[in-house]
Design brief:
With about 475 residues, the chain is of the alpha/beta class. The chain folds into 4 domains: about 140 residues, Response regulator (Rossmann fold, 3-Layer(aba) Sandwich); about 100 residues, PAS domain (Beta-Lactamase); about 80 residues; about 140 residues, Heat Shock Protein 90 (2-Layer Sandwich). It has 14 helices and 15 strands. Helix 8 packs antiparallel against helix 9 and helix 11 runs parallel beside helix 12. The two termini are about 75 Å apart.
């Protein structure tokens, strides 16, 4: 059993012996400290940390009333019992009003133990009640902080469809969507919040009142850009459902991203199909015809046995077929990219661009010598972005001149493409669904590169792609 710590404020040794005797007779296990002065009393409150104080009312250089006053300032909940024969009834009443726990007359010490035990029990109950109250206040404060410092709307509704509580996000969102404010205790069905129809909202709540936990993705057509994900959690008292807690998460950005991804996937699929169609036409129109010619030539040789003439023709036709195959392969992926690297490949792109468009394309190099080759991943990314940029210039820019700058050192690789065409309007430049620009941005993200696109109407467009080389290996 843990010992009770008693602080005695007493100067009479005989009285102390009598009090000790009563306490031991009452089976109270304790340890004690004895003080007789104000200084020692104040020190003992801090160093000894008593569980209870038993004090005489009158001491030679101190008194019980002063001790009680000091105790109240230090620890108001600490039990304080006066054990005295000189206090008087009026003083006792006044001291009890000031925080005294109880009084015991020295000629009636048989009442000490019951009052002593009751004082400790009351003090423990008060401490536990205070602790529970503090814990409850902390939990409530913590809960409020959690609820009101989230981006999600949160609210709860009883089975009569009345609002129990809500966080600030819910109040703000409700005001934004409905233009109304709902107070605690008001009917949640006074406005259509979840859907455009109150009856539909009611069905969701009623479903939760059956005890089901569920989540719904909701789109309010009155606010087409707003999508939300609402979860319902039944509130139970025992087995009885007494309401539902609800949380609403804004998923508009997620839906926007999903739409963007779907559009991008569609775009990629269309490009792939277009490339397949082009490849099929190339094979059919060129290689197919050339192979058909070879077959016819072989038939003539077989029939007429005029080998030399037709063999030469077949050789030429075969050369043409080989050139066609090389052309198709180059369009799909130029071999120069794998064999010579990114800089010669970009120079090749510029040359091919000039051949196809008759638009002058100037390549300027600022490349340090004896550098490590750029990694394959960076090379492919830079090549495809340059290819896409030149394709966009061909389709849209109406440019008269294109300039390409390539800068490389030990730390970074920079590609800059500028044209003097008609430029890109701001709306299209900032449009997240502009597939050509989106494709460039997505490729840049794959290698952690910075892509910057600037354009002025009538002033052309500049694209700069920059990547740190120390994060990639060759």
């Amino acid at each position: 059993m843990e010992k009770i710590k008693i602080l005695f404020v007493e100067h009479d040794e005989h009285d102390l012996e009598l009090i000790h005797y009563e306490l031991k007779k009452g089976a109270i296990v304790f340890e004690s400290a004895i003080v007789q002065t104000e200084h020692d009393f104040e020190h003992a409150l801090i160093s000894f940390l008593p569980d209870i104080i038993l004090s005489d009312y009158t001491l030679p250089s101190f008194d019980g009333a002063s001790a009680l006053s000091i105790k109240q300032k230090t620890d108001p909940a600490l039990p304080f019992i006066l054990v005295s024969s000189t206090i008087g009834e009026e003083n006792a009443v006044n001291l009890i009003k000031s925080g005294l726990t109880d009084c015991v007359q020295k000629d009636r010490l048989y009442t000490l133990v019951p009052k002593f035990n009751r004082a400790l029990e009351d003090a423990n109950e008060r401490r536990e009640k205070k602790r529970m109250q503090e814990q409850l206040e902390f939990d409530q404060t913590n809960l409020n902080a959690l609820i009101n410092n989230t981006c999600d709307s949160m609210w709860s509704v009883d089975t009569n469809f009345n609002l129990i509580t809500s966080n600030q996000v819910f109040d703000d969102l409700l005001l934004l969507i409905t233009g109304k404010v709902i107070q605690k205790g008001d009917s949640i069905l006074s406005v259509a919040f979840i859907t455009p129809h109150i009856s539909k909202d009611k069905q969701f709540y009623e479903r939760a009142f059956t005890g089901e936990t569920f989540t719904k993705v909701v789109h309010n057509p009155n606010h087409p850009a707003f999508w939300c994900e609402i979860s319902f959690f039944p509130i139970k008292k025992g087995a009885l459902v007494i309401g539902t807690a609800c949380s609403c998460r804004d998923i508009s950005e997620r839906k926007k991203a999903e739409t963007q991804i779907r559009n991008f996937a569609t775009y990629l699929n269309n490009v792939l199909e277009e490339e397949r169609a082009n490849l099929a036409r190339e094979i059919h129109d060129e290689i197919g015809q050339q192979l058909a010619g070879i077959k016819m030539g072989l038939s003539i040789i077989k029939k007429n046995n005029k080998e030399e003439k037709y063999i030469n023709e077949l050789m030429n036709e075969t050369d043409n077929t080989i050139q066609s195959l090389r052309k198709i392969a180059t369009e799909l992926r130029p071999g120069i990219l794998d064999s010579l690297g990114i800089i010669p490949s970009i120079q090749w792109l510029a040359t091919e661009f000039e051949k196809k468009t008759s638009v002058e394309c100037i390549v300027e190099l600022n490349v340090q010598e004896q550098l490590e080759p750029v990694s394959k991943k960076i090379s492919i990314c830079f090549f495809r972005i340059c290819q896409e940029a030149l394709t966009n210039i061909t389709k849209h820019a109406e440019a008269k001149e294109v300039r390409i700058w390539i800068t490389q050192n030990n730390h970074e690789f920079i590609l800059k493409i500028a044209d003097d065409g008609k430029g890109i309007v701001t709306e299209k430049l900032e449009n997240p669904f502009s597939m050509g620009l989106l494709g460039m941005r997505e490729r840049a993200k794959l290698i952690n590169a910075n892509l910057n696109i600037t354009s002025e109407k009538g002033e052309g467009t500049t694209i700069q792609l920059q990547v740190k080389l120390n994060q990639h290996t060759a």
